[in-house]
Amino acid sequence: MHALPTLHRLAFAAAAAGIFALSPAFAQDMKVELSGKNEVPPVTTSASGEGMFSVKPDGAISGSVTTSGIDGTMAHIHEGAAGVNGPVQVPLTKNGSKWVVPEGTKLTEAQQKALKEGKLYVNVHSKEHPGGELRAQLK
Asked: Using CA atoms, how far apart are residues 28 and 11, in angstroms rounded to an integer?
């Protein structure tokens, strides 16, 4: 068996380390489709929404929701399993036609656990439906 010369082994190790150092941490990406039927209780509405959220391993969360057919008054990420209402965890801010996660927001360890268990959802509230008109679970 021939051993690689030391210089080649060092070059290979350095190249491998560089590749891993440049690789971004993988994020969990979630596409959502918001609907009134997902609200608790269900809401009859012609409004709809869609969005994308991304959570990095350190809990950093980013993303947004775009809606149509609704004049949204508030939007949040709440804690609660499908079919269950729960408290606000992350308030979203209005930015043009989108509701966005404020820059620099991080989920706590408890919130990350809830996400893994399917117990976080996003919803958009309206004047007609102050408890929420559109909802989607984050998964």
From this structure: 33
For residue 106, the 8-state DSSP code is B
Average pLDDT of every residue of the chain: 87
Distances (CA, A) of 52 to 33, 67, 75, 123, 138: 9, 12, 14, 13, 9
**Nearest CA-CA partner of 82 in 130, 124, 31, 122:** 122
Q: pTM of the prediction?
A: 0.81
Peptide bond into 130 cis (omega under 30): no
Which pLDDT band, with edges at 50, 70 and 90, does 97 fall under?
confident
Q: Is 87 helix (H, G, I), strand (E, B) or coil?
A: coil
Sign of CA dihedral 27, 34, 94, 138: negative
Q: Are 88 and 78 spatial neighbours (Cβ–Cβ below 8 Å)?
A: yes
Closest CA to 76 of 54, 56, 93: 93
| CA distance linking residue 76 with residue 97, whole number of Å | 15
